[in-house]
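hey so u asked for the seq, here:
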Amino acid sequence: MKNHLLIVATSTLLGLASCQSDRDTPAAPSTGTTPPTSGTTPPTSGTTSSAPVETNRPNSTYSPAFTGQTRVAGVRTTTPFVRAVLTTPWGLASLPDGRFLITEKAGTMRLVTAAGQVSAPLSGIPAVNSSGQGGLLGLCIDPDFTTNRMVYWSFSERRSDGNLLAVAKGRLAANDTSLEDVTVIYRATPAYSGTNQYGSRLVVDRTGNLFVSSGDRSDPGIRVQAQDVNSAIGKILRITRAGQPVAATPLFAGSTRPELYSAGHRNPHGLAIHPVTGDLWGCEFGPRGGDEVNRIQPGVNYGWPVITYGIEYSGQPVGSGIQQRDGLEQPVYYWDPVVSPSGLTFYRGNRIPEWENNLFLAALSGMHLVRLVIESNRVVGEERLLAGEGQRFRDITQGPDGALYAITDGGRLYRIDRQ
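ran it, structure tokens below
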């Protein structure tokens, strides 16, 4: 592949603090319905295939549940593309006019132009507890943003009984300096004293409702609530834009929480809607090994911490050290060792035709962008992009101009487009 990677526009560094300890706190829960086990067929259109891109020794001796669940054939983009370093992190959302909203861990939100011009912090944001892995986290805009200018975001909130993941909404003021009529519309209870593994991303589905990812909060004493259908810990949640459950009937038997969409998640940092099928996809951190990509289905349990392809940081097995159990969903794909998958987006359009409907993922400890080629809900090819930049990639999205934009913990916004 030709290297056309040195068009540098504007570089504005905001000196943002990186999220503590997601270095190798990969993504991860687990498990469940096993996809078809037919052999992997490398993609053909505009793409060449090669040996797997992962060559490092795994942390465990666990075997995948099916061919192509990990270390699939590598692929390489053949369309020449460029990347321009513009500017900044935690969450990233593109606006219809070509600008971006960016959340910063410490609790601020800014507007950034595609040329790298950064606004002053917007006022009106509720206080966040930015200790540990907390902060101002994921965000998305309303489907009707051009008329209502509504923005939704998640953050770690300090409460009298501990800390929790909260979801808020507010209107971007006409003068672009503040968020107005801000209100917290949902809180992922119970609260907990710890400050790690909140999740959290937001995405709007085709019906105009919100998916929200909620982490397991890390510690052994609470992470088991990822299996508790009366807790919002370690779940994917589905709520209206007013913060109410979408469905009247819980998807999980015995649950009093109809907002629970799926269960058994560890630390889900990425959510994206497939542009063709409308399916929800997610990625999450595993412990040592076991980062996952999942197709998120309603009422399905993804297994954490009962099953996982990772091990504890101590080197001991997680729980009983099993990778499969009836009733628990298998990941579509996993990594061992980890890449620490964060933001997630599908590529749409034909500026780089061979990327159409491919899944792109920001890797923190992996320090690259992951491209996954997906056919029939199976990963058939993997590519690593911008690995030479030396950056912890935090989030990725596609702008209205068709280019991909990625932010890093080092305070950069990259624009990636055809030459």
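The CA atoms of residues 270 and 343 lie 4 Å apart. Confidence is low (pLDDT under 50) at residues 1-45.
lmk if thats what u needed
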